[in-house]
Every structure is written in C-alpha cells, then in structure tokens.
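Annotated sample (chain length 214).
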Amino acid sequence: MRPTLFSLSLFAKRQISRVTIRSRRGAHYPIGQNAPRKLQREITRRLEQINQIKYEPKLLVENDYRLTKGDISGEKCSYIYRLKALDAYKQFDHLVKKVEPRLERTPDCSVRKFVIQVRESPITPMKGASSNLCKAFIDAYEHARYGYKVFSEAEYNNYMALLHELLSRGHRSSQRDKGNSDIPMKARKSVDIEGSQQLLRSGSDRRLTEMHQL
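Output written by the structure step:
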C-alpha cells in the first residue's frame, strides 16, 4: 500500500512540475536548479533582460559578396531586395532624429507605431505627409520584413519611391521651419532700424522748430 501511494505522489509531483514549466515562457528545463539561490536570481534577471534587447544591424555592407554575384533579379535572390529595403529605412530614422531629436525612435518601438507617432505629433517634421502615404509605406516595409510573398525588384522600387517621398517631406519641412525662424529676426531688425530712424527724424524736427522760435 505504501509503495503505491509513494509512486502515485511522485507521479503527481512530476506532472505538476511539467505543467508548470510548459505554462511559463522560458526553458523547459529549470536553469540553475542546483545553484545557490542568489545565483539563481541573478540568472533569472539576466534572462529576463534578453527580451528588452533590441538591435537592428546593417544587413548589407559595402562590397558585400551577395551584391557582386551579378544578376539578382530572380525570385531566388529576392531576399537581397528585402535586405536593401530594411537598410534603406534607417534613412528615415536618421532624418527624424536630425530634424527633431525629441521624436527619436526608441529600440522597443515598431516601425508602424513610430511612423504614425511622427505623423500625428504636433512637432512632426513630416508636415504634409498624408495618412495614405504613411500607410502605404508601412505596408511596404512590413511586406519586405515579414511578408511571405515575393519581394522582387518591382516591390523594392515601389518601396523606395514611398520612402523618398517621406524623406522629401521631411527635408521640405525642415527647410520651411528654418526659413520661418529666420524671418522674425530679419523683421525685428528692420523694425528696429526704421524705429530708430523715425526717432532721429522726430528729434531733428523738434530741434529745427525750437531754433525757428528763437
């Protein structure tokens, strides 16, 4: 009787531990099981930080061997256009950061969320960019990064056209803001000069009238 109860309790304990391990995210085998408790907490803390690490490296460097193979227009080489599209997107991040550093993209922010935030922000450098343009660009980017359909040269050219349109909006906005910031200074200088000239004229007129009265 006792061996039967012992085996049943052992079986139940194993089943409970299996369900617990499968229900949580992480390794199915407990990491650091025989380590000291302090070391276990440190291991768990470092593993939890992995989900917060976001890094987008440059996918194609200059003189990449994959770009020197000749013809890359076939479907088998369509991934080259995907890599080129993802590398080209960084131009948008750099432009937003340069024009308005307060809108810099954080590592945990997706491209879809970031483009929408930039467009809807009151300090956006993308003034005049329509929602249809932003949506079309986001869809093209997600097609290049996540899409299962072919991303060939035609899709890449369409993607680059949308990207250049967004970048041109940003450049126009930055130039417009720069011009508007210069106008008030020039206007103030001209007003000050005109005001000083009027004061001099009025002062000289008063002196002439006083001399005539004498």
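Annotation: Residues 185-193 have pLDDT under 50 and may be disordered.
Annotation: The longest helix spans residues 153-213.
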